[in-house]
Amino acid sequence: MTTATKLTHYLSSHGVPYDELPHATTLTSLRTAQECHVPANRLAKAVVLEDDRGYLLAVLPASHHLRLAALERQRQQPLRLAQEDALERLFPDCAPGAVPPIGAAYGIDTIVDDSIAMQTDIFFEAGDHKTLLHVSGPVFRALMAGAQHGNFSTH
């Protein structure tokens, strides 16, 4: 698999400059950071959640854990992890577990943890387990301009 088609189209149509970093297959974001010699706090991972209104993409650093209760308080809504079959429908061009953090490319509401929003460089899954994309911090912030922000992760 290569960079997800919807993601590529979205980035191209928005004139987003990015670099591709191919790497050996990895199955966790922390392992990917290690393999690519990237600081884990600059690797954005995406967690797909669900509530009564639909789906939400929570974006946080690979070095952090999601604090679901904090996110639920912020959203004032109970949340749960999305089911695997929903992920296949929402991200049909992505390998399981390799969801990119750019929810707008897939029409999914996104919330970004403050701990990653201000990094100077951001790396993220390209839709497979073999490619990272790299963008500058300002470019990432522009990509997340329509997203909500909050503090819902812990190191």
Can you walk through the features of this model?
The protein has one domain: YbaK protein (Alpha-Beta Complex). The strands form two sheets. Strands 1, 2, 3, 5, 6, 7, 8 and 9 form an eight-stranded mixed beta sheet that branches. A two-stranded antiparallel ribbon has the order 4-10. The chain has 155 residues and is an alpha/beta fold. A hairpin with a 2-residue loop joins strand 2 and strand 3. The radius of gyration is 14 Å and the shape is globular. The protein starts with a helix and ends with a strand. The protein has six helices and ten strands, in the order αβαβββαβαβαββαββ. 37% of the residues are buried.
Shape, please? globular
Mean pLDDT: 94
Helix percentage: 25-40%
- CATH level-four homologous superfamily name: YbaK/aminoacyl-tRNA synthetase-associated domain
Please give the CATH architecture.
Alpha-Beta Complex
CATH class: Alpha Beta
Total number of distinct structural domains:
1
| Order of helix and strand elements from N to C terminus | HEHEEEHEHEHEEHEE
Cα(first) to Cα(last) distance is 31 Å
CATH topology: YbaK protein
Low-confidence stretches: none
Question: Which structural class do you get from the secondary structure elements?
Answer: alpha/beta
Radius of gyration: 14 Å
Number of E strands: 10
Report the sheet-strand fraction.
Answer: 25-35%
Please tally the helical runs, counting DSSP H or I stretches of 4 or more residues.
Answer: 6
Largest sheet geometry = 8 strands, mixed
